[in-house]
Amino acid sequence: MAGLGTTEILIILAVVLLLFGSAKLPTLARSLGKSARILKAETKGLRDDDDDDAQTAKSAQAGAAEKNARDEAGDGGAARPRGALGAGEPIQGVPVSDPGQVRKSG
């Protein structure tokens, strides 16, 4: 312990006891324990954030790679579910207008 012997440790404990008094020592120990728990929780939170950031970066890279693959395939990233129609695409040869452009007669 950094060159501290038993007698030095006892002297330090006696000085601490004289400075804080026996009534305040349990409160001091409790507050030190709470501080240690808070510090431990915060460092764990920082590690978890770093892991989440790394996971987000990996998924962003995967998404970019997928988009590049779609662009190279020639669909321009306009992947639609099967059977979904865009505005103005014909259904069985009949042109369909955009629902926003349809006029109601009446």
Indicate the topology.
Elements: H1 6-73
Question: What is the gist of this entry?
Answer:
With 106 residues, this protein is an all-alpha fold. It has one helix at 6-73.
**Ends: how far apart?**
93 Å
* Total beta-strand segments: 0
Radius of gyration: 34 Å
Helix-strand makeup class = mainly alpha
Number of discrete helical segments: 1
> Which of globular, elongated, flat, extended, rod-shaped describes the shape?
rod-shaped
Low-confidence stretches: none
Mean pLDDT: 75
Biggest β-sheet description: none
How much helical structure, as a percent, in the residues? 55-70%
**Order of helix and strand elements from N to C terminus:** H
Percent strand: under 5%
Describe the structure.
The chain is mostly helical. It has a domain at 22-49. Helix content is 64%, strand content 0%. It has one helix and no strands. It is rod-shaped, with a radius of gyration of 34 Å. The chain starts with 5 loop residues before the first helix and ends in a 33-residue tail after the last helix. The model has no long low-confidence stretch (mean pLDDT 75).
Features:
mainly alpha; rod-shaped
